[in-house]
Automatic annotation (TrEMBL):
This is Phosphoribosylformylglycinamidine synthase subunit PurL. Residues 57-172, 418-541 form the PurM-like N-terminal domain. Keywords: ATP-binding, Cytoplasm, Ligase, Magnesium, Metal-binding, Nucleotide-binding, Purine biosynthesis. Belongs to the FGAMS family. Monomer. Part of the FGAM synthase complex composed of 1 PurL, 1 PurQ and 2 PurS subunits. InterPro entries: PRibForGlyAmidine_synth_PurL, PurL_linker, PurM-like_C_dom, PurM-like_C_sf, PurM-like_N, PurM-like_N_sf. The active site is at H32, H78 (proton acceptor). PANTHER family: PHOSPHORIBOSYLFORMYLGLYCINAMIDINE SYNTHASE SUBUNIT PURL (PTHR43555:SF1). Pfam families: AIRS (PF00586), AIRS_C (PF02769), FGAR-AT_linker (PF18072). It comes from Methanopyrus kandleri. Substrate binds at S77, H78, N79, H80, R99, Q224, E296, S297, Q298, S518. GO terms for molecular function: ATP binding; magnesium ion binding; phosphoribosylformylglycinamidine synthase activity.
Length: 722
């Protein structure tokens, strides 16, 4: 523990903290729990709106859908554990975010998993990919929550620090929302779920330091072990208790375990809590009180229950094969008191332990890359084959991942993985004609070159993806994955990225209702990961008739229309960084008026069934987008007709400018008319041929790929995994 922190604690307590207290402060005041480097930065994010019921600060955010129902959303990272033990690290990441949503009283209905790894030819990377995907699959499938979206990216910066983020979405009646607080002295604390063991002890501190050469072995005890069967029973039992009105407060036992859950409930409720570790069910003998308080054993939740309701809650839990034990009570003294039978083991002010960690502002080192770079003109065939065989644009590789997930359990998934956003039908009473659209997006290459502009683009892309399926945005969440804030260059990236997130959220008038900050994502050999702000977006769709026949595979004779202008913006693009090895150029800028106009247009043409299929243009530019949308069915395209202001054919093909989409339609005049009315540039660039051959003409270059050639390129990265 930092000596300055220790002195502050001594001053508050009037004495030296004992060993148990010191361990609790070390974890609660870690970067992972306390957000010491980012609290002051995150305050600038717009988080309020009329429909926001619970914003940042609780286990998950709650946003109104209508007067009766609300959506609950959270996002988390499990990066370090997934490097040390990819299977259990990823599985318990799923379990933790599901319990965060459950703790608000909600029933979890969907998961999304943005994943980032090193190059597939890296020594451990195939092992990491396989373990992480199996961990997510096994846990999510077994608890009955569909995994319906996410991302997959490969870059050298993630080779020894993969990023495993998980977003969960749930649904709850507004009358059944539960908060993570204990605000009534005399109420009882009930610990529900699995027994407490030594797995995960110190996980919060482990997540607040960089990885090293020995991490795989030395840090394995800090990784939790999951049990999806117990998690499934928890979901059922907690929901029944909530429906009966028996739960006054609820917290998941995640980072810092019982210490964090109890302390935050007391601090948020303006009360105190007393915990008796002797009453905590253990699965290992000889555990010390500090181990019990800091264990991060999975599938455990702490409930606040009125004394007269305790027996009923315990009976519900037993019905589903779960242990439930009274482990403490809510007091009015403002302290976290830890007892072992009659002995007081620790006693500290709850609010000071929860919120007293001093904020830190680190030194910054601003940097910039040259905007004007010399880009050699490539060989057309080599360029096309190189880009389309990249794992970062391969739909076959993404399909290899999501085919391992059960994305249809619960029977809600209307638009399935493989599209720009998933759509989940809500089904509940009063919501029969309402669905949610869900997506996650990030572009770390853009953010690396220009952290603020790049992050604005991440938000624009997430909202653009919602618009492709006809959804109006409800809210955003963020998962900010960065290196050590003690590195001045990283802290500059972090501050500028948050500025970009705030600007974009305000411009689009969409609140940022929650999120997660994951720092120290770096390895002592490789340095920090690329700055990776993952944006999760939730949209709402009211009126679902148009989804009966949308999106669908394009048919022969349909027109192909490109919407939006392509500009000479290649900074941070797949083309410059991956193909040429050039870090520089102009990062795509968000032009908010144009972007909003495109979103409105996309919603309109989707909802009025003017288009059969649609995709936005992002990583890999027009080349990757037309190949994925049209390659399997075949099309003949003249991309020189695209509205553009570029100077070369390769820039036109691979620019990653924002504000663009490609649609197929048998009503081209209607689409062009709607685009003109919206002020969005639009051009018919060809038609669907249905012969399985993709023909692209751009400037002096003609490219032709049949279905078999294209699938071979897409599948080429898979040999590392099969």
């Amino acid at each position: 523990m930092d000596e300055r922190d220790l002195e502050l604690i001594r001053e508050e307590l009037g004495r030296d903290p004992n060993a148990t207290e010191r361990a609790m402060f070390e974890n609660m005041w870690s970067e992972h729990c306390a957000y010491r480097s980012t609290r002051h930065l995150l305050r600038q994010l717009p988080s309020e709106a009329d429909h926001v019921i619970v914003g940042p600060g609780d286990d998950a955010a709650v946003v109104a859908i209508d007067d009766e129902w609300a959506v609950v959303v959270g996002i988390e990272s499990h990066n370090h554990p997934s490097y040390v033990d990819p299977y259990n690290g990823a599985a318990t990441g799923v379990g933790g975010i599901v319990r965060d949503v459950l703790s608000m009283g909600a029933f979890p209905i969907a998961l999304l998993d943005p994943l980032r790894f090193g190059p597939l030819d890296g020594e451990r990377v195939p092992y990491l990919v396989d373990g992480v995907v199996r961990g997510i699959s096994d846990y999510g499938n077994r608890i009955g929550v569909p995994t319906v979206g996410g991302e997959l990216e490969f870059d050298p910066s993630y080779e020894r620090n993969p990023l495993v983020n998980v977003m969960c979405v749930g649904i709850v009646r507004r009358s059944e929302i539960v908060r993570g607080r204990a605000d009534r002295p005399g109420d009882v604390l009930v610990l529900v779920g699995a027994r407490t063991g030594r797995d995960g002890i110190g996980g919060a501190a482990f997540a607040s330091e960089e990885l090293g050469e020995e991490s795989e072995e030395e840090d394995r005890p800090a990784v939790q072990i999951g049990d999806p069967f117990t998690e499934r029973q928890l979901i059922i039992a907690i929901r029944e208790a909530v429906e009966r009105g028996l739960v006054k407060g609820c917290k998941d036992l995640g980072a810092a375990g019982l210490t964090c859950a109890a302390t935050e409930m007391a601090a948020d409720g303006g009360t105190g809590v007393e915990i008796d570790v002797f009453k905590v069910p253990l699965r290992e003998e000889g555990m010390e009180p500090w181990e019990i308080m800091l264990s991060e054993s999975q599938e455990r939740m702490l409930l606040v229950v009125a004394p007269e309701d305790v027996d009923e809650v315990i009976e519900i839990c037993r019905k589903y094969g779960l242990e439930a034990s009274v482990v403490g009570r809510v007091t009015d003294d403002g302290y976290l008191t830890v007892k072992d039978g009659d002995d007081v083991i620790a006693r500290v002010p709850a609010e000071f332990l929860a919120d007293g960690a001093p904020e830190v502002e680190w030194e910054e080192e601003p940097y910039s890359y040259p905007e004007n770079v010399d880009v050699p003109e490539p060989d057309p065939e080599d360029l096309v084959r190189s880009v389309l065989s990249s794992p970062n644009v391969s739909p076959a590789l993404r399909e290899w991942v999501y085919r391992q997930y059960d994305h249809e359990v619960q029977g809600r998934t209307v638009v399935k993985p493989g599209h720009d956003a998933a759509v989940m039908w809500l089904q509940h009473e009063g919501l029969e004609d309402v669905a949610l659209a869900l997506t996650t997006d990030s572009n770390p290459r853009h953010v690396l070159i220009d952290p603020k502009t790049g992050t604005e683009g991440c938000v624009a892309e997430a909202l653009r993806n919602l618009a492709t399926v006809g959804a109006e945005p409800l809210c955003l969440v963020d998962c900010l994955n960065f290196g050590s804030p003690e590195n001045p260059r990283v802290y500059y990236q972090l501050r500028r990225s948050i500025e970009g997130l705030g600007k974009a959220a305000r411009e689009f008038e969409v609140p940022v209702v929650g999120g997660n900050v994951s720092l120290y994502n770096e390895h002592e050999v490789d340095g920090p990961v690329n700055p990776t702000p993952v944006i999760g977006a939730v949209g709402v769709i009211r009126g679902l008739d148009y989804l009966e026949d949308f999106p669908r595979e394009p048919e022969e004779g349909e027109a192909v229309i490109v919407l939006g202008e392509t500009r000479e913006e290649l900074g941070g693009s797949l083309y410059l960084i991956e193909y040429h090895g050039i870090k520089g150029g102009k990062v795509p800028r968000v032009r908010y008026r144009e972007e909003r106009a495109l979103h409105d247009l996309l919603r309109r043409i989707a909802r009025k069934n003017m288009v059969s299929s649609v995709t936005d243009v992002s990583t890999g530019g027009l080349l990757a987008a037309v190949a994925e949308l049209l390659g399997p069915v075949g099309a003949s395209l003249s991309l020189s007709e695209v509205p553009n202001s570029v100077s070369r054919w390769d820039f036109l093909l691979l620019s990653e400018s924002h504000g663009r989409a490609i649609v197929t339609t048998d009503r081209p005049d209607d689409v062009l008319g709607a685009a003109e009315e919206a002020g969005v540039p639009a051009q018919v660039v060809g038609e669907v041929t249905g012969d399985g051959v993709l023909r692209i003409s751009v400037g002096p270059v003609d490219v032709s790929l049949d279905r078999e050639e294209l699938e071979e390129l897409w599948r080429s990265p898979l040999h590392y995994l099969e």
